[in-house]
Amino acid sequence: MAARRTVYHVSPSGERAAAAGVKWQVEGREGRRVLHEPHHTQQEAIDSARRHAKEHTPAQVIVHARDGHIRTAYAYGGTFAVPAGGRGRRTGEAGGVF
Predict the structure, then answer these.
(1) Digitized pLDDT (tens) for each residue of the chain, 98 residues in all
(2) Which candidate, 42, 43, 46, 25, places its Cα nearest to that of 34?
């Protein structure tokens, strides 16, 4: 049986967090543990998500732009494909990637 992959999302924080200076967040699930980390910059959030992904392979990091579209993705310990027609859609839209 193949190991279950862990997916980390780097996305903009909500309005309340942004007002407090936290602009980006990393969200994911490591087994039973739910991960939610606030970060001041997108680069800090990406670096953190990539660090977590390298520790919990197979894993994938999905980086969202400010408007919710998928900007880029990183895979660790496996090959992950984005379904045809899935790129460029916003998270949660019908036919979206996730």
Answers:
(1) 456 889 999 999 887 766 777 799 999 987 788 889 999 999 999 999 999 999 988 999 999 998 889 999 999 987 665 544 445 444 444 333 43
(2) 25
